[in-house]
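Long-time lurker, first post.

We've been arguing in lab meeting about whether fe (ii) ion would sit comfortably in this protein at all. Half the group thinks yes, half thinks no, and nobody has a model to point at. So I'm putting the question to the forum: if I give you the sequence and the SMILES, can you give me back a predicted structure of the complex? Inputs are below. Any interpretation is welcome too.
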Amino acid sequence: MNVKNNVINYDDDYSFVSWDDSFATGILLIDNQHKELVNITNELFNACLAGKDKAGSAFKEIMAHMVDYVKLHFTTEHELMERIQYPDYKNHKVQHDGLIKHILGAADEFSKGNKFIPNFFVRTLKEWILSHVAVYDKDYALFVQDQKKKGLLTDAQLEG
Ligand SMILES: [Fe+2]
Ligand SMILES: [Fe+2]
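Top reply:
Settle the argument with this. Predicted structure of the protein with fe (ii) ion, as tokens:
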């Protein structure tokens, strides 16, 4: 996988995610959370690779963890964006709400035993996370850099 001009290309549809420094926002807390999201996504991939029965129980557990972690991460970003008065906050939040809805819907289908294809779901999730980080999160990261340069924002304000 590689990122060029904010377009993400995949060498393989079914591949693990590797962290790339081009995803970095330069905000330590956010970067650490993004790395953890990558880890959990890979755990979901791993669960898909396990045998069918094992995959089911492992997948369920990791999905629950993913839901919690995504919520935590989005709350962190919302608080940060409010604190720094990021102008595109509303639009960014709409993107987050869309993903939460998608994940909760998928988790629900999965628990009901409805038609649910874990491989497909994880692939979609991976694409969403990486493109969101590369485009939307990158945008507030640039805003932060700009505000810092102008002396309008300090590291202390970023930490909350
Ligand atoms: Fe993010
Ligand atoms: Fe975000």
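For your lab meeting: The mean pLDDT is 84. Residues 67 and 103 are 7 Å apart (CA to CA). Whichever side wins, do check it experimentally.
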